Every structure is written in structure tokens, then in C-alpha cells.
Description:
Helix content: 25-40%
Order of helices and strands: HHEEEEEHEEEEEHEEEHHHHEEHHHHH
Structural class: alpha+beta
CATH topology of the largest domain: Aminoglycoside 3'-phosphotransferase, Chain: A, domain 2
CATH class of the largest domain: Alpha Beta
Strand content: 15-25%
Amino acid sequence: MSKTAFLQPSTTGLAGPMASLGGLLREWLPCQRWFAGKDRPVTDLRLLSMTELFPGCLHLLVHADHAGVPAAAGTPPPADCYQLLLGVREQLAPRLHRAFIGRAVEGPLAGVAIYDALYDPRSAQLLLERLRHPGTAGPLRFEADRSVPVPGGLVPRLLDAEQSNSSIVYGDEFILKVFRRIQPGINPDLEVPWALARHGCVRVPAPVAWFRTTRPQAATLGVLQPFLPDASDGWTLALRALATGDVFTAQAHELGQATAEVHLALATAFPTGAHQEIARTAAGMTERLEATTHCVPALQPYAARLRTAFAALASCDAGPPAQRIHGDLHLGQVLRAGREWFVIDFEGEPSRPLAERRTAESPVRDVAGMLRSFDYAARQRRPWRPEWARRCREAYCAGYASRAGWDPRKKHALLRAYETDRAVYEVLYEARHRPDWLAVPMAAIERLAVRGG
Length: 453
């Protein structure tokens, strides 16, 4: 009998497997790119659900408790839920050594090698088969758009790019995004592309299949979409342009047009009729600034002047109506195939609660995110090319205005506030995940604080 046969909850309870896995995961999880609590010690790991997808592959939802971050009065301490697909083998094949998590020393899996199953081609292929043939596995539900055939036998490869989730490409035809940090509810990266496809928006690849869980709460776990094999992401193209001396303004103008088209489609697919509550928006931005300043002391000298950007919202034009937006738009979230731009990854900022990511917001927030991304790209080469970034920003806004019917540049106070809010987010992100990059958003902080834009 296989070791995994002893892991059925009916015979061990959910606490049993953690005797084997708890210590290994406590060391392994903080080393993963997608783990959100790197700066917060893990105080406890609890197994929320476990399903044997197929022999030798376990699907887990693990709850991580953290210490070191003060919680608001009356609220539980910070916690996160992560999705893991773990391979279980007596002996690990040499090709899987990079996926090795450890060998259990106690509990029902004592002596067995544990590894990240997404690195295993066999597990990846079997996962695709689950999506090709909708059905259930314990609390897991595999569903698909049956009008789009997905052939079998597609060779999988796990993408190595740093990101907050894990993605597998199948035969250069489809890409499966496996969400790592799980929150209850439908993930916008399924909800939004599905709705846009139904409204005829061709700028966003439509979902082909997906899987979700019903326990302990309903949540989206992964989405399969068409893969654009000949496409390059905007970040790569921007860096290439900087290296070759290309001004990139034509591409930036077309990207602005594509962004506006997606925003118009979002407004149609998710009608809200809402108007932005400026006071609440400013209060939220100020609160994020205060929290980030507490975590990153380097912000302290600029905090007072940054607050003026948010205070100015009280007397500014509210701008376009609030609507569903992308929520985390930057050059890495767009693809260019031929002469066409496509927008991907509608999950929003992973650090924000799912309900917050699904609320209506000003489209200026997306515009500000892209403008910040041009600045990020320009700072990847020495000497820094501020003029390159400025021209791309101008071209992008002009392209956006030509499709949207309003010009982001004429909403100066609103755009400055959202750019400042984005830069504050970047400071916290870089301080936690990529300290070597902290100088990039800090340069923007200085610019926004000193010159106001």
C-alpha cells in the first residue's frame, strides 16, 4: 500500500499529515517567491483541506499564522492560506531535485521524499487531464468552457519567472495559472476575463477551464487560458527598447489605446453607476502611507509632503466614474503579439483583500500603475533615462485619451495621488521582497514629494 493511503482524513484527521509535513513546510514556505509573509515569522501551520488528486500527488490548503505584525483591536492576527500540490515518493528522480522540499522524519509519511509537484511533468499532465474532463475530487471542482477543445498529451513546462503564483505552459497552446495565496470567493482573474469574453473584448484571453474548492470556503484555485507563444511582455519590450535606443513612444501610444478599450469593456461588463467617494479614497491612501511608514522608516522624511497629495483630493475634480479596473496594471501585465496589445493577470494586488480587489475604483489607478512602470523600466539601465520615461508616459496618456474620451493628464491632482499611492505600495513591496530594488520607488517618492509629480 502506498504511503499516501495512510493520509486519508477519515483515518488520520487533518492534524495527522502535519506531523510529517509541518516542520518541512515551515522552513520551505518562507523561501518561496509567492509566500507573502517573508518578514513575519510563521507561528503555526494548519491543514485546512487535503485531497489526493492522483496516486503520489496531494492537494493541500494550508493556513499560516504569523507573528510580528500588530493586529487591530478585536481582530485576529494576520494569517494567510496557501495552495500546495505536493509530490510524495519513496525515491526522488534526479530531474526533481530542484523541487525537493525534504524527507519526512515522523508521522504517517516518515522516510518519504516530499516535493513541489508542479515541477513534475507527470503531475502537471495529470492536472491538465482533470481540467479536460470536468468533475470532482473531494472538495475540488474542475470545470471548463466545453466549446473550446483542449487536446491531450500537451507537454508541460513550469515557467521560472518570478511571480506571486505558479504558471504551467502546455505545448505552447495553453497556460495554467495556479493561485498560491487563496482567499474566499471568485478570483478576479477568472471573473473578469470570463465576463469580458462574453462582451466581445478581444484584448483579454478568455478562460478555457478552471478549478475551485468548496471547502473550507468556496475559492478559485486555478485558471487555464490560451497561451500566446509569439508574444512578449511589455517589460521585456521596454528593456529591449532602452538597450537599442528605441524611444518606444509608438508602442506606448498603442498600449494606452488598448488600456482604454479594456476599461470601456469593463464598464460595460460590470455596470456600477457609482461615483468615486473622494474622501474615502484619500483616507485609504493616507492610511496605507502611515502603515508603510511604520514598516519602512526611509519613508518618514517624505511622509508629511506625501500627505498633501492625498489631501488635495478633497478639492479636485473626481474624474471618471468608478468602475471595475485591472487593479495591478504595469508593463509585466501586458503582452504584445504582432502589433496588438493584450492585457492579462486581473488578479489585482495580491496583498489586498479579495473583496477590495473586486470593488469599483477610478480607472486613473490603472493609468498611474502603468506610468510608474515606465519609470521602473527606465531605471534598469545606467545612466538613468528620465527623458525616455517621460516621453513614454506622455505617449501612453495620449493614446489612452484618444480612445477613452478623457485625458488622464488633465486630472493632475487625481493622477498625482494615485501615482503616490502606487509608489508607497512599491516601497513596501520592495522592502519585503526585493530590498535591492528599493531605490527605484524611493526615487519616485522623492520626486512626488518635492516637486509634486
